[in-house]
């Protein structure tokens, strides 16, 4: 057989997942700056805005790993509608309350819903994608997030106005609209998980210890790179409105700037496969994180709006690399039967960064200035570039000139690792491979 393997009846499930993720992420991207503006309208300072942004990620810190354990031994799909309902509820109630503690609490519910959706969705992509499809499918999956990040801030900026003391009312309206936008995601979640994939998942009688998962080479690097990239995206979303207020940039313009960043991220993910073939995973991760660090620090400069737009466009392109490649890195390095837990640990790292980074940003902004947090982010991304340089394992040549994208560049070779990686290793050790190895490589990854 020479055809490319398919893990199920077509890829309609992936398209529906991307659509649902676009609506869910669009609602969150619309609600996050709206929460910041609403907090400012009721008297919050820069430190309080940072605390509220951090609470969004606080509650998920305690439930990510249990949700990942449950997904490893069960279905992924039920987490998706649960996440949509929690996001919608958190958005709506954030717009109805007027006290800062209540806004922080409902922001945390919104974050919990986002976590449920993302764990279920990422586990679904890992489970229903063949090994050679993972870079592509994770890249396409994250396009849904970028679409939401493109549309959400534009919608928020169009709805929110601070003229005539209307900031509190218009930001509340934006939060209520974001709740309705998220609810639309429910229409794309029908029959999204393949029964055949669920039934063929390997059964394990014992849980893989977290220490073992974190000890697999490639998992810590993937977690830390993802943490740095998401922290940068998160603080850009939460703090660019504050920068705009200090530089007299209108909310609509801030929304357009955030959407420009998201559009550049979409462009990056659309060309992810040729970039991997050209540079390889290690070089692509390292270069993108290094450039993103320098550009993120450049946001702190008192530049004009057109120059800021160029900085954010290039920054968005660079930030588009880290998330999908860190997902693939973690999935490949994780032991069989613990891939959803490994993805949950990656998300736990993301949420830890989302708690610590905005809180630190709020303290720094209150003490030094609103542009200073972006310098801190730049330092973190430069550190992530170092992890990308050495955290991917050994580099091996491709056995043929036509290897798929996941065979290009560096390879992560922990012991033990997933069955597909073992198949690749044995195929490289025997020139040309044997029919048994080639057959194994065509089999879809069935683990969670």
Give an overview of the whole structure.
With 448 residues, the protein is mainly alpha-helical. 73% of the residues lie in helices and 0% in strands. The protein has 18 helices and no strands. α5 (100-127) runs antiparallel to α15, α13 packs antiparallel against α16 (372-390) and α17 (419-429) packs antiparallel against α18. The longest helix has 30 residues, at 12-41. It is globular. The two termini are 26 Å apart. 59% of the residues are buried. Residues 1-9, 197-205 and 393-448 have low confidence and may be disordered.
Quick gist of this model?
The protein is an all-alpha fold and 448 residues long. Helix content is 73%, strand content 0%.
Shape: globular
Number of helices: 18
Poorly predicted runs are 1-9, 197-205, 393-448
Helix/strand-derived class? Answer: mainly alpha
Mean pLDDT: 75
Cα separation of the termini: 26 Å
Query: How many extended strands?
Result: 0
Features:
single chain; 448 residues; mainly alpha; 18 helices; 73% helix; disordered C terminus
SSE inventory with pairings:
Blueprint: H1 12-41, H2 46-58, H3 60-72, H4 79-96, H5 100-127, H6 134-159, H7 167-183, H8 195-199, H9 210-215, H10 219-246, H11 251-270, H12 272-279, H13 281-298, H14 305-333, H15 339-367, H16 372-390, H17 419-429, H18 435-442
């Amino acid at each position: 057989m020479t055809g490319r393997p398919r893990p199920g009846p077509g890829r309609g499930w992936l398209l529906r997942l991307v659509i649902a993720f676009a609506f869910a992420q669009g609602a969150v991207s619309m609600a996050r700056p709206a929460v910041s503006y609403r907090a400012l309208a009721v008297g919050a300072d820069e430190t309080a805005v940072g605390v509220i942004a951090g609470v969004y990620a606080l509650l998920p810190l305690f439930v990510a790993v249990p949700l990942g354990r449950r997904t490893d031994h069960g279905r992924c799909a039920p987490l998706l509608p649960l996440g949509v309902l929690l996001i919608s509820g958190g958005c709506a109630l954030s717009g109805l309350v007027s006290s800062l503690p209540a806004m922080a609490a409902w922001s945390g519910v919104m974050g919990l819903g986002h976590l449920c959706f993302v764990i279920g969705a990422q586990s679904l992509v890992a489970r229903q994608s063949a090994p050679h499809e993972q870079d592509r499918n994770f890249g396409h999956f994250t396009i849904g997030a970028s679409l939401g990040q493109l549309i959400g801030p534009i919608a928020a900026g169009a709805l929110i106005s601070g003229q005539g003391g209307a900031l509190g009312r218009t930001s509340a309206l934006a939060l209520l609209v974001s709740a309705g936008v998220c609810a639309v995601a429910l229409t794309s979640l029908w029959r999204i998980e393949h029964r055949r994939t669920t039934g063929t998942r390997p059964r394990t009688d014992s849980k893989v210890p977290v220490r073992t998962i974190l000890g697999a080479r490639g998992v810590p690097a993937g977690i830390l790179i993802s943490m740095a990239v998401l922290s940068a995206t998160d603080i850009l979303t939460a703090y660019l409105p504050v920068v705009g207020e200090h530089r007299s940039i209108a909310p609509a313009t801030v929304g357009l700037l955030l959407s420009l960043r998201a559009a550049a991220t979409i462009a990056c993910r659309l060309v992810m496969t040729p970039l991997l073939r050209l540079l390889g995973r290690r070089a692509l991760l390292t270069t993108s994180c290094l450039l993103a660090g320098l550009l993120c620090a450049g946001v702190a400069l008192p530049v004009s709006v057109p120059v800021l737009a160029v900085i954010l466009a290039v920054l968005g392109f660079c930030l588009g690399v880290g998330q999908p490649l860190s997902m693939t890195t973690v999935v490949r390095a994780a032991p069989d039967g613990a891939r959803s837990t490994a993805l949950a640990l990656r998300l736990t790292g993301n949420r830890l960064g989302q708690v610590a980074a905005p809180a630190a940003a709020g303290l720094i902004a209150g003490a030094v200035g609103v542009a200073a947090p972006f310098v801190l982010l730049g330092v973190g991304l430069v550190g992530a570039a170092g992890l990308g340089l050495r955290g991917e394992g050994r580099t091996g040549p491709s056995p043929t000139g036509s290897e798929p994208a996941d065979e290009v560049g560096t390879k992560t070779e922990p012991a033990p690792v997933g069955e597909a990686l073992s198949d690749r290793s044995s195929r490289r050790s025997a020139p040309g491979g044997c029919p048994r190895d080639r057959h194994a490589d065509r089999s879809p990854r069935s683990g969670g």
